Design the sequence.
């Protein structure tokens, strides 16, 4: 499962089953890991881990990631690549 969003020139791709976000240059066709190490997890910060990331969206310099199997939305600062889990108050599981 792949989900794609354009970010300036490159594309960001949710590589769901490999638990990564990849960056793809459509001109050179080069793809490399942008975030994630391939292991499932919920780690925030600069060594983020995801569990089947899915839908992607960009707004205000942030990448929003639907982290499917963690049942959360992750927010990535595109300049620093720092990841945090979006806190939404008032919702119950």
Sequence:
């Amino acid at each position: 499962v792949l989900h794609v969003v354009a970010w300036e020139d490159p594309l960001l791709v949710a590589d769901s089953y490999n638990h990564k976000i990849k960056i793809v240059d459509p001109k050179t066709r080069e793809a490399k890991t942008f975030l994630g190490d391939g292991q499932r997890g919920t780690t925030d910060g600069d060594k983020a881990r995801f569990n089947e990331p899915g839908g992607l969206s960009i707004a205000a310099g942030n990448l929003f990631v639907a982290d499917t199997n963690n049942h959360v939305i992750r927010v990535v600062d595109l300049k620093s690549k720092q990841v945090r889990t979006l806190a939404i108050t008032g919702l119950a599981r």
Remarks:
- The chain has no helices and eight strands.
